[in-house]
Amino acid sequence: MLQLNITTDYAIRIVVYLGMTGGFAASRDISGSMGIPYGYVLKIVRKLAAAGIVTTSTGIYGGISLNKKPGDISLLDIIQTMESTAKINRYLEKDKYCSRFATETCPVRQFYCVLQDELESKLSSITVAALLQQKKGDVS
């Protein structure tokens, strides 16, 4: 079964929380409100900042802010930032590994390609803004 790392779940929660707070929050507030260990918040925020999803500022008024509008951040953006791979099978990695050396003709790989495309399409269509609307009950 395909399963996202807990770090990815935390990253999604951090970005959603920032969307809920108007795009800015202190890392300690995120930790307490979202139930994420403080050290984990800092580690995850570094990755999100490197990907351009958030920015950080230090000092007395420092914190973490969204670098994009919630409607411009998809779940796929966050997942691809946090996961070492977002592919459902090794067949789909850049090296196109196939133990049968039949990458281009394998019907199983073709199925995985279709499934991967559908998964990525769905994840890219779900934005942080959409998750925030769902939370409010506006979207079913």
Structural commentary:
With 140 residues, the protein is mainly alpha-helical. 51% of the residues lie in helices and 7% in strands. A hairpin with a 5-residue loop joins strand 2 and strand 3 (63-66). A 3-stranded antiparallel sheet has the order 1-3-2. The chain is built from 6 helices and 3 strands, in the order H-E-H-H-E-E-H-H-H. The model has no long low-confidence stretch (mean pLDDT 86).
Topology:
Elements: H1 6-20, E1 24-25, H2 27-34, H3 38-50, E2 54-57, E3 63-66, H4 75-82, H5 107-125, H6 128-136
Antiparallel strand pairs: 1-3, 2-3
Helix pairs in contact: 1-3, 1-4, 1-6, 2-3
Mean pLDDT: 86
Helical run tally: 6
Beta strands, count: 3
Radius of gyration: 18 Å
Main sheet specs: 3 strands, antiparallel
List SSEs in N-to-C order: HEHHEEHHH
β-strand amount? 5-15%
What is the structural class? mainly alpha
Which stretches are low in confidence, meaning pLDDT under 50 for 5 or more residues running? Answer: none
What is the terminal separation in angstroms?
26 Å
* Largest beta sheet: strand ordering: 1-3-2
Binned, the helix content reads: 40-55%
Based on Cα principal axes, name the global outline: elongated
Provide the descriptors you would attach to this structure in a database record.
three-stranded antiparallel beta sheet; mainly alpha; 140 residues; elongated; 51% helix; 6 helices; single chain
Quick description:
This protein is mainly α and 140 residues long.
